[in-house]
Amino acid sequence: SKPLLRPRPTIGNEARGQAPAKPLAQASESLIAVERIANAGRVKEAQEVALAHLKEFGPSAQIFYLLGLVQDADGAAPQAAQSYRKALYLAPNHREALIHLALLLRKQGDHNGAEALAGRLGRVQKRSGS
Fold it and tell me: What is the extent of the structural domain holding 53?
């Protein structure tokens, strides 16, 4: 008899439904390391550590936000904007990503985009009472 249709493999669904490979504490320590290195002004190293974190622990709003910060500091505005947008996709109310993306868009001359994000930030702050 003919086998039933099998789902076709697609990129990105290999690990769906599996528990995270690394404990949360290790991921948290890795994020702190990225921040520490970036705060020390070692932008290239911070970017490398952030990318290694992403590969080891997977995507999160915070790692995309930090990656955006170091890319922005390194003058890679298009990549920074993309990283901030990924952070906002994963956490639509991520205040820091909203602020930094709005500032970046304003700097690039996209005042409408910056105003839209500022309005979104205002709504987020109003809902949270801060």
Answer: 24-128
